[in-house]
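Hi R.,

Here's the chain you asked about this morning:
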Amino acid sequence: MSQSEGKLGHMKPVWNCRSFRSGFQLGPTRGLEPAPWRRIRKAIHGYASAIVRVIGESYGRDSVQQAWREFTLQDSGQFVVNNPHSELFFSWLFHRWSPALEKGHKLDDDTCYGIPPTRTYLARNAPHLDAFLQRYLEACLASRFGFYEILNCTPQVGFKARDIVAGVEHHVSEGMASTSLQDGDIVFAHIVPIDGTAMVEAVAPVSFPAACKKQLSELCRHRELCEHSDLPARQLYFAMFESRRCAPLPEIRNTDGEVIEIIYLYFDIECAQTAFDSLQSLALGATRGELLQRAKFGRDGALLEVSIPWNKRSAEGAAEIEALVLGYIRIRDRRLVVKVNSKQRARTIRALIANIPASTARYRRTRKQSIHARHRSQHNATDRGPRLHDKNGVAPGGRHLLVPAGRFPTST
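And the predicted structure, written out as tokens:
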């Protein structure tokens, strides 16, 4: 990090593995993936799409734009899906937005006034929903947005998040955000406690330095109000974001000390199964069954698509495997794509694949983009991005981050 890291004007990009737009998600990777996280992920997978349909069917085609204006304090134009605040917005839209006639909201279904879309979804579908998903959505409705101080952060595992207003600490299991945070950072987030752990339902695209705690002291003087409404915290968040968004970005490095640059390597392969069999050993600590758990197969049983994390031990000679993710490999039909976050790792994985002839992988091309370029393109896109255009006027993709994960999570 640069020397400006501790200054008040500094903001850092934050990655979150819960992005609904990501086609491949990972939670904590210590020992690859513990059973509780796997159960949580399985239960809540895909719920956003179902709530989006409820919004389109009952709240009306203009409801997203109405909610967006309220979320951004009536100070924003049309909502676009690649806005840097869209992850926070969708969580707020689902779980916190309560449209009211007196606020000028107009809904297609009058029974939805004063009711968040998540509550409507539960009321209509509870008998058919997974019991854990019901508990999770109830927890989302009960929890609020707020500022959290990051403590005891362990990359790829999680961290403690202390609510700055309430003083309550949550143990958060989070694989991706924990790689871009460090102790003392301040984040604005929707954190949901459930079953002895906590999930990051949504997090702001940037974190703030510890020096910002002074600005947050005003919230503590209005603790009672903040416990019943996230409006004061939301107002302060937007003010802090706008005042710092033009500050120079720090130099961001991965866990090996290499400057981060997102790089995709493209290969042609002859057979998905053959490529998988030859490369699965790169997923240190993962069994064949675990890797194939979310794979896709054809009607004849042939492997069509599978993802492989490229790992290494976090410490040589460790008693138990703690996997440090270096990149991600996706095999799909006759194409293999590797995503890494530095030039050095790109050279390493290309050499590794070349030295495994059985993979049948033939290098085709490289595509790369710096983190700072992504930050600038995402920021510029907020004023010129595509408008919502599906038949219900509702965002078709769900969430998107300021430094988006694209089709893969980002390695550390």
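The CA atoms of residues 281 and 310 lie 9 Å apart.

Let me know if you need anything else.
M.
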